[in-house]
């Protein structure tokens, strides 16, 4: 991926901002939003209590945390990274993530090694094992079962990015984004009205079909 290569070439920018943020100590937690929190999804049991994140983007950019890492956010925008999620991921020493699947293949995952005890930290995806390197990126499909390990005594930090699979068309992205937005909507969160959500999704897809027919005609 060309954008990922550009990110590698400028990895020092991200590494320096992370170093400065970590040097803030307790002030980082007071200044930032949800700093170093555990997994909140159903896969939380696989991640365990020692995997923590600091989110920059979860579909929308976190303005509070973006102000702490302005150069990192600017870099990702400049290189045209097609991300839907971006966050710093910390893995405590002598811990790991158990095998699990993210359950979707329309979004891929990339890691940029930032502060890694090299030779002691690894990730295995679909049976293939790789090690993180400082300033180097790895990209993979996490719908395959994957797991990690940090055998060192130090914390391991990477920049984790989830981005659209290049095979997903712009219209498919738009439709998926529409469903994401519906799932985040207040009615979905309060009433869990899945019939309502299905209606929204069907209406959106029907609209797309009409547009395609008109374009073809």
Computed over alpha carbons, the radius of gyration is: 19 Å
Strand content: 25-35%
Tell me the helix content.
40-55%
* Superfamily (CATH H level) name of the largest domain: B-lactam Antibiotic, Isopenicillin N Synthase, Chain
**Poorly predicted ranges (pLDDT <50, ≥5 residues)?**
188-192
How many helices? The count is: 9
Oligomer: single chain
CATH-level-2 architecture of the largest domain:
Sandwich
- Count the domains: 2
The CATH topology assignment of the largest domain is Jelly Rolls
Structural class: alpha+beta
CATH class of the largest domain: Mainly Beta
Shape: globular
Strand order of the largest sheet: 2-1-3-10-5-8
Mean pLDDT: 87
Protein name: Aspartyl/asparaginy/proline hydroxylase domain-containing protein
InterPro entries: Asp/Arg/Pro-Hydrxlase (IPR007803), Asp/Asn_beta-hydroxylase (IPR051821), IPNS-like_sf (IPR027443)
Family: Belongs to the aspartyl/asparaginyl beta-hydroxylase family.
GO molecular function, one term: dioxygenase activity
Explain briefly what this protein structure is.
By secondary structure, the protein is of the alpha+beta class.
Structural description of this entry:
The protein is of the alpha+beta class. The protein has nine helices and ten strands. Strands 2-1-3-10-5-8 form a six-stranded antiparallel sheet. It has a four-stranded antiparallel sheet with strand order 4-9-6-7. It starts with a helix and ends with a helix.
């Amino acid at each position: 991926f060309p954008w990922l290569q550009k990110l590698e070439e400028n990895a020092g920018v991200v590494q320096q901002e992370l170093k400065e943020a970590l040097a803030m100590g307790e002030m980082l937690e007071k200044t930032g939003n949800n700093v170093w929190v555990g997994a909140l999804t159903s896969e939380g049991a696989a991640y365990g209590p020692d995997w923590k994140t600091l989110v920059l983007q979860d579909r929308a950019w976190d303005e509070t945390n973006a102000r702490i890492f302005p150069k990192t956010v600017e870099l990702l925008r400049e290189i045209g990274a097609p991300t839907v999620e971006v966050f710093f991921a910390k893995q405590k020493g002598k811990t790991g993530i158990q095998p699990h699947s993210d359950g979707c293949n329309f979004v891929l995952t990339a890691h940029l090694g930032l502060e890694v005890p090299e030779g002691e930290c690894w990730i295995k995806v679909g049976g293939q094992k790789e090690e993180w390197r400082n300033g180097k990126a790895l990209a993979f499909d996490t719908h395959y079962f994957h797991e990690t390990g940090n055998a060192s005594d130090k914390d391991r930090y990477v920049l984790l990015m989830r981005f659209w699979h290049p095979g997903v068309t712009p219209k498919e992205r738009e439709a998926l984004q529409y469903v994401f937005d519906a799932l985040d909507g207040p009615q979905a969160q309060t009433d869990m009205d899945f019939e309502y959500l299905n209606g929204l999704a069907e209406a959106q897809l029907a609209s797309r079909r009409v547009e395609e027919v008109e374009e073809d005609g």
